[in-house]
Write a structure and sequence with these properties.
heterodimer, A: mainly beta, outer membrane lipoprotein receptor (LolB), chain A, 13 strands, disordered N terminus, B: alpha+beta, 4-stranded antiparallel β-sheet, 3-stranded antiparallel β-sheet, 32 helices, 11 strands, about 65% helix, disordered C terminus
Chain lengths: ~280, ~950
């Protein structure tokens, strides 16, 4: 069974990362899975398909008044596969590169993540009109990603070991997990519930509860397709029930194992986009 | 008419039980009609029931332009009316920025988040809008987080643990222009929490809940709650409480005074019944016709009572004076009604005219108030001429045996009689002095009127010790102001994208090409592709050339060979950026213009603080450059502005941006915090902005328009002042015409108008001199003073004329006039003026104003009637009582011409508002024709009148 996936799709905050526990969990294949196993599989399905990947992303941000704003970008992902480890088994450190095409005035803006397992991720944002590369503080991972309803953390994933997981229900199609943060002071939610598809292991829905116990944020995978044998979420929605806004992201031209070189995931390439890798043609 | 009146009296005298029965039945009908829907709504689903509306916004019709715009803008920018909670600590050296105080603030905000309720009927959740709550624990701090790092973090994610942490919160907030003076006070001692509400009608509920919660806190913090929505909503609640105390109290005082005057419980019940029943009918009809009980209409009972009592007191007074002469109640009533009927009819009609004219004001609640008050006055009149005679018949004669005996014994020696007798002598012998004094007083009063300050402020409707007033005062000392006004800017004409692709476009294209060519790793074939684009731009046609060019460039990109793709990407990006030039509020010049406007406003005393999109951009810009103050400015390109904004949107509250700018960047809102909610201060800001824009034309065409509750109040005030003025003028003319008809003479008409004119001039002169603002209650009372003052004058003149005829000259008549008739006027003054004094102890300022003005109006109207009218009678005796009389009053040329002119003016005033009229040559011809006809009329009727005069 080849567990694979798309790139980052702003999907859930399920990243592996971290220590041996995470790496170990990644390799588990059990018949009747535990909560930890389900989470590990989901993490892999959501963020580690293939050894690298590329997708064109269209983001439509709708506010409570029904006004829609669009963002268009290309996302590149590359896994740091240690020598001797096959791409399939890997779920360790990763790098992401997000290049903005539209709106035109933020065109050429670029965002880069180095995702680590044992420490906070590194994030950079390049603002071409100000000729400025900014590091984004680690504490900002749960702030809005460029004005959308997704968070920075959703881009590269939340480390599974930051939460306690509990399998609360197994339905015909999904495992339902309750996830409670180990350090509640770092996050704004009290807990969240996720639905992990039993066939694809993709997280297909998540509901976040605020401290008052009501749902205020909902993720839904709207469309899933098989791309190069990898189940891939191609349309997803994040709704903010507090503001009444929502964001829909659509992934097109998804490709895995495209052979991205490591050096393009560097500060130098933030200022000078690696054009040939950003193009699907 | 008089015959009809006498018949009515006779009928009532002979069918007393029928009259009382019908009155009771109709009252029951109105009580049930208004009350049943509240008690048993299922029984009468077709009846509207009592609906209370305390929203001053409804002073304007829902379709009124400024309201429509206000609501549209609130929707467009996601703005809500806000409750402002200030926290002040004057004991701690760090103010509220200490561990304990901030802990309580944190707790209060957590509590405020829970202030949400589900509407039982609609299932909609309403209350505090959590995502827009402005508090230390809910807003972001933006700051450089070390070299090359910009950081967004909650300003106060949890209560601080140390004094240093607490002070750090102040330091961080003070650095951010949009928090300094808004969230944290300028002196760093206090902070403010802003609770946006789904509907401002929840303000009082939220206010009460917050007060309950803060009462539980100990420590030295003061929690002060204010904001226009709270003031308005709380006023509504307290108004009804006040009304349910004040109206019965006024009734009680009137009752006691009547008892003191007439000493016959059975008899004095009748005026009170008249007052009560006319209030019941009026309010019943108001409710049953589906009208809401608004701030204005809630005042109807208070206005109706004195007027309803007025006529009854005239009757009782005369009945009291005459009864002992015949000791026959039916006979006495008959003679009293005979003397008073016409006067009462006319006083009622004039008062009705005064109130009904309010229907011409452009303010719906004032219209309702005027019309229903007028209805109530007619009801009171009808009851006075039917119910009171009927009621008197029902009292057994023996019960009345001693009525007025006490009075007869003391008639010549009673203090009131002596006082009035002296007064009559005074007016006769000192007539000139009185006239001179009147002229002097009028001159001073006119000076006072020129100093009248038109102003209102819902916060000041509370007495100065009310918690809302205290909060208002303290918070506006510490902060940039708690009154929000919003100035919306829209991109004007010619800023849309369908620009022509002329020389400027070509120049920008070339400069982009050269810029790109100079970069490292420039795409291949750049010059070739951009030249091609330039050629395409010249060739493209159609109504929207830029979009045409974009489509063309997209096609060329798709068809381009691999080695030209990068260059075409750049070309297309350039075209798309050109399309974005329509987003004018990303234009650095426009943003700098906003900053200049803000700086100008900040220099005024009224505007404490303003926030705008430009503040957001320049603050983010500074933080991107490590917080260095010299970078607190707008960057130089629209793209740089856009990138600052996208950085700002990477916060916990990206939606905050849309409170300042529309998503298409063609509309923006400037938030102003005013130190005062006074209308004249808002007015001043409006003028300031207009002047700035006139002197400094914006870099691109922009239109501007105000909204927000503070501004809406200004608009309805302007409409009210103007409406009231023309209503007053109109009713003044109506009353004058009626008086001219009643007395068959223009000079008598003038005389009759004198007390009321003087009353208005003196009362409003006093308002100006004392420095009391001309606000809503003051404006509305003008119509009341008209009704009351003319009442006294009519009664006085009617009796004067009759008595002059009886005695043959004024010298003999004046003593009699100051007997019965003057006593009735005197009693009325005392009853009503004193009856409303309890209002002075009300906690709400508008009620105090009404009480105070009511007393002033009564005293002034009474004094002018009793002093000036007799003085003028003395001086103008020959003119007022001419020897020969014209056959018909239209045959008196002066009367005819004056009343015709008044009638024309009346029509003009009433119609002018609805039609767009102006002077034309036809007007000139018409005037000439009228003058000609007047001359003809005079010439032809001259001989006629002479002929008629000779036989007399």
């Amino acid at each position: 069974m080849r567990l694979t996936h798309p790139l980052i799709p702003m999907a859930l905050r399920f990243s592996l990362a971290g220590a041996a526990a995470g790496l170990f969990a990644c390799a588990v294949r059990a018949q009747s899975p535990s909560a930890e196993e389900i989470v590990a599989r989901a993490n892999r399905a959501a963020y580690y398909q293939g050894s690298d990947g590329r997708a064109t992303v269209r983001m439509a941000i709708t506010d409570a008044g029904g006004q829609v704003r669009e963002r268009q970008m290309t996302i590149l992902r590359r896994d740091d596969v240690p020598p001797g480890n096959s791409g399939d088994e890997h779920c360790g450190e990763q790098k992401f590169y997000v290049y903005f095409h539209r709106p035109a005035d933020v065109g050429k803006m670029a965002f880069m993540v180095w995702k680590h397992l044992d420490r906070d991720d590194d994030r950079w944002l390049y603002l071409p009109a100000l000729d400025l590369v900014k590091r984004i503080a680690a504490s900002d991972e749960r702030t809005s990603f460029v004005g959308s309803d997704f968070f920075y953390e959703d881009v590269s994933g939340r480390r599974p070991q930051e939460d306690e997981h509990e399998l609360v229900e197994t339905t015909e199609t999904a495992y339902v997990l309750r996830n409670t943060p180990k350090d509640p002071t770092l996050v704004e939610f009290s807990h969240y519930t996720t639905w992990v598809d039993r066939k694809t292991s993709l997280p297909v829905k998540a509901e976040y509860y605020d401290r008052g116990g009501k749902i205020y944020r909902v993720y839904e995978a709207l469309e899933t397709s098989m791309i190069q044998d990898h189940p891939t979420v191609t349309r997803a929605k994040m709704s903010n029930l507090g503001t009444g806004g929502s964001t829909i992201t659509e992934y097109s031209d998804v490709a895995y194992d495209v052979g991205l070189p490591e050096d393009i995931f560097s500060e130098r390439y933030l200022r000078r986009a690696p054009r040939q890798y950003l193009r699907s043609r | 008419m008089k015959r009809f009146g006498l018949w009515l009296t006779e009928w009532s005298l002979s069918h007393p039980r029928l009259v009382v029965g019908w009155m009771a039945a109709i009252s029951l009908f109105f009580v049930l009609g208004a009350g049943l829907p509240s008690i048993a709504p299922r029984l009468v689903p077709w009846l509207p029931g009592v609906k209370v509306d305390t929203d001053p916004e409804n002073m304007l019709a829902r379709s009124e332009g400024v309201r429509v715009f206000h609501n549209r803008m609130k929707e467009a920018y996601g703005l809500h009316d806000m409750v402002v909670v200030g926290v002040v600590n004057e004991a701690h050296p760090d103010g509220v920025f200490n561990v304990d105080s901030l802990g309580r603030v944190y707790e209060l905000v957590e509590f405020a988040r829970t202030l949400r309720w589900t509407d039982a009927a609609t299932g909609v959740v309403e209350g505090v809008v959590e995502v827009d709550l402005l508090a230390p624990s809910t807003v972001d701090n933006i700051e450089p987080g070390g070299p090359g790092v910009v950081r967004f973090e909650w300003l106060m994610p949890r209560p601080p643990a140390t004094a240093e942490e607490a002070r750090a919160i102040r330091r961080k907030a003070k650095r951010l222009p949009f928090l300094d003076g808004t969230l944290v006070s300028e002196d760093g001692q206090a902070l403010c929490i802003y609770l946006p509400l789904t509907s401002k009608h929840l303000s009082y509920r939220v206010y009460s809940a917050l007060r309950e919660q803060t009462a539980r806190f100990d420590g030295e913090d003061r929690f002060l709650i204010t904001g226009l929505p709270v003031a308005e909503d709380t006023f509504g609640v307290e108004m009804f409480r006040q009304m349910s105390v004040s109206a019965p109290l006024a009734m009680l005082v009137i009752f006691l005074l009547l008892l003191a005057f007439f000493r016959k419980l059975a008899l004095i019940l009748s005026p009170l019944v008249v007052a009560l029943v006319s209030v019941i009918w009026t309010m019943g009809l108001l409710v049953m016709t589906g009208n809401t009980i608004h701030i204005m209409s809630s005042m109807i009972p208070i206005f109706l009572m004195p007027i309803a009592v007025l006529d009854a007191v005239h009757i009782l007074s005369m009945f009291f004076d005459r009864y002992q002469q015949t000791r026959d109640r039916v006979q006495t009533v008959r003679s009293v009604m005979g003397s008073l009927f016409m006067a009462m009819l006319y006083t009622s009609l004039t008062t009705v005219a005064g109130f009904a004219s309010l229907a011409l004001t452009p303010i719906p609640p004032v219209q309702v108030f005027g019309l229903f008050s007028a209805f109530g006055i007619m009801v009171a009149w009808a009851l006075t001429v039917t119910f009171i005679p009927a009621f008197v018949t029902l009292i057994p004669e023996e019960k009345l045996a001693d009525f007025g005996t006490h009075h007869v014994a003391t008639e010549s020696g009673g203090p009131l009689a002596i006082l009035l007798r002296r007064l009559s002598g005074f007016t006769y012998h000192r007539a000139w002095s009185i006239v001179v004094a009147m002229v002097l007083v009028s001159a001073v009063a006119v000076h006072g009127i020129t100093r009248i300050r038109i102003n209102d402020n819902p916060t000041r409707w509370f007495s100065s010790s009310h918690p809302i007033r205290v909060a208002d005062r303290v918070l506006n000392e510490h902060f940039g102001g708690t009154y929000m006004a919003y100035l919306a800017f829209e991109a004007g004409e010619g800023t849309d994208a369908t620009q022509d692709l002329g020389d400027e476009f070509a120049a920008r294209l070339l400069s982009r090409r050269d810029e790109l060519a100079g970069e490292e790793g420039a795409p291949a074939g750049l010059a070739e592709v951009f030249d091609r684009l330039s050629a395409e731009a010249r060739a493209v046609t159609g109504p929207d050339p830029l979009n045409g060019l974009r489509d063309r460039a997209e096609g060329l990109l798709d068809a381009a060979p691999d080695d030209r793709l990068d260059a075409w990407d750049e070309a297309l990006l350039f075209v798309e950026q050109e399309l974005q030039r329509r987003e004018v509020f990303k234009d650095p010049d426009v943003l700098r213009y906003l900053i200049r406007l803000q700086e100008t406003l900040a220099a005024s005393d009224v505007v404490g603080k303003s926030n705008s999109l430009a503040d957001v951009v320049r603050t983010v810009h500074r933080e991107l450059f490590e917080g260095q103050e010299e970078y607190l400015r707008i960057p130089d390109s629209a793209a740089a502005v856009a990138q600052c904004l996208i950085t700002y949107q990477s916060s916990h509250r990206p939606h905050d941006l849309w409170h300042f700018v529309r998503t298409d960047y063609r509309g923006t809102v400037l938030w102003l915090q005013l130190r005062s909610g006074d209308n004249r201060d808002m007015d001043e800001v409006v003028r300031l902005v207009d002047a700035f824009i006139r002197e400094n034309p914006p870099p691109v065409p922009l239109t501007h328009r105000w909204f927000g509750l503070t501004y809406i109040n200004v608009v309805w005030q302007q409409k009210m002042v103007q409406g009231m003025l023309s209503a007053l003028l109109g009713s003044f003319l109506v009353v004058f015409l009626m008086m001219t008809v009643l007395f068959r003479s223009a000079i008598w008409g003038f005389l009759c108008m004198l007390p009321l004119s003087l009353t208005i001039v003196v009362t409003y002169g006093a308002v100006g001199l004392v420095g009391k603002d001309y606000d809503m209650p003051v404006a509305v009372l003008s119509s009341l003073s008209l009704g009351l003052a003319v009442d006294f004058a009519i009664h006085f003149l009617e009796h004067s004329r009759a008595l002059r005829e009886k005695h043959g000259n004024w010298e003999m008549a004046v003593g009699a006039v100051f007997g019965e008739p003057a006593r009735a006027i005197w009693r009325n003054i005392v009853v009503i003026a004193v009856g409303f004094l309890p209002l002075l102890f009300a906690s709400l300022v508008p009620y105090k104003t009404v009480g105070m003005l009511m007393a002033t109006i009564l005293v002034v109207a009474g004094m002018t009637t009793l002093l000036i009218l007799p003085a003028l009678m003395r001086l103008l005796e020959r003119q007022l009582f001419p020897e020969g009389r014209a056959a018909c009053f239209t045959c008196n040329c002066v009367t005819c011409a004056v009343s015709a002119a008044a009638a024309v003016a009346l029509v003009v005033i009433s119609v002018y508002r609805f039609l767009n009229l102006g002077w034309t040559s036809l007007t000139a011809y018409s005037i000439a024709a009228v003058i000609l006809l007047v001359g003809l009329c005079r010439w032809s009727s001259r001989r006629q009148t002479r002929k008629q005069e000779i036989p007399r």
